[in-house]
Amino acid sequence: MLLDLKIALASLSAHKLRAVLAMLGVFLGALSFNGVQHVSEAMYKNAEAEAEKLGPNLFAAMAGQVRFSKGGGSARFSGFVRNFTVPDAEALAGGVPGVLGFAPYYYGTNPIRFGSVTVTTQFMGTWPAYVDIRSFHPEFGRFIRQQDVDDKEKVLVLGRKIAERLFGRPEAAVGQEVYIFRSRFVVVGVMEAKGRDLTGADQDEQTFMPLSTYLRRAANQTFISGVYLRLAEGADLDQVRAAASDILRLRHHLDGKKDDFSLLTAADSMQLRREALDLVQTLGAITSTISFAVGGMGILSIMVLMVQARRMEIGIRRAVGGSRRDIVRQFLLEAGLMAGAGGALGALVSVGLVQLVCALAGFPYVFEPVLTLGTLAGSVLLGLAAGSYPARQAARIEILEVLSS
């Protein structure tokens, strides 16, 4: 076996260009397969982390129809209605099984000004329970209190990015006065950095105020955007969804009509995200298969050329005692070495590329040793399969035929 290995390495060294060309297809196949699968796994992990940002066991009822993009990364609102109210939210909290807490909210966009600096913020009028339901807490100062809601106080809690844009340092925002809705509000807190959630909303760009303040003092309206419900661990989502639907349809008098609301969980968006990622993985596997097939054909053609070019070498080895089995083993070893080297290099490069992609995209880095070893093993098996025909052809070469030519 050691002799076969030496002969194989010597042969590949003598035909470097052919060996490199044979390895190229396998290299690209291993690179694309290992890279795409690892990036997809990183995206899965990132999607799971984003789901946690929505809050533990979150269930949301929203006015109008909400449709997520295929990738699950953003939400589109259509058919917004003005009949979703705080009493609706209270009815859901009291009638849906397993509700531990709830926070109605109104969501919109408005400029906010401090001195000569004006930025656009996504404001959220809500209740104090929001921080626990969404698992989102202030880093500096405090959040909205029940007294603020009862007294309709003009207080604000800023998202981290909004605070940085207005004041430079987030901690400097607390106690300052800003203008929103042409009214003066006092900043009482700055939220922790949170990033985007699965709906596509950047939670660091949001500004929070008491819901009553917005409804009565800013807009003089009664309708809201929806309500967030925190469910007990293990709550039956089908029962929750059915109960919420029955309650809202009854309160909105929708007998025989389409829903004018949407009921969502993190699992809904996660499912769309997973479908998109499954498609990415499938396309990656198809591309990798094509690359591997090209690599296998490359090894096959190069090995056939090598057999023809080394007929004298094969004849001499047979003449000095080498068996047909030795010839087959030698050529299979050469094919396996080429494919293994291409696969190993492709897997190694893909690991570096995955690290780069994860760093640039902000995904958690994922490394699956089993997947990488499987890619390497598949590359070697491909090489052995592609080299089997040339190996048999080499073993059939007759000694006298070669020596007499």
What is the topology?
Layout lengths: L1 H13 L1 H38 L4 E6 L1 E4 L6 E4 L7 H10 L3 E16 L2 E10 L3 H4 L4 E4 L4 H6 L3 E4 L1 H8 L9 E4 L2 E9 L14 E5 H8 L7 E6 L5 H15 L9 E5 H44 L1 H9 L4 H38 L7 H27 L3 H5 L2
Parallel strand pairs: 5-10, 7-9
Antiparallel strand pairs: 1-11, 1-12, 2-3, 4-5, 4-8, 4-11, 6-9, 7-10, 8-9
Helix pairs in contact: 1-11, 2-9, 2-11, 2-12, 3-8, 9-11, 9-12, 11-12
Describe the structure.
- This protein is α+β, with helices and mostly antiparallel strands.
- It has 2 domains: 2-49 and 272-403, no CATH class; 82-259, no CATH class.
- 56% of the residues lie in helices and 19% in strands.
- It has 13 helices and 12 strands.
- The chain has helices at 2-14, 16-53, 86-95, 130-133, 146-151, 160-167, 211-218, 237-251, 266-309, 311-319, 324-361, 369-395, 399-403; strands spanning 58-63, 65-68, 75-78, 99-114, 117-126, 138-141, 155-158, 177-180, 183-191, 206-210, 226-231, 261-265.
- The strands form 2 sheets. A 6-stranded mixed beta barrel has the order 4-5-10-7-9-8. It has a two-stranded antiparallel sheet with strand order 2-3.
- β8 and β9 form a beta hairpin.
- The model is unreliable at 70-74 (pLDDT under 50).
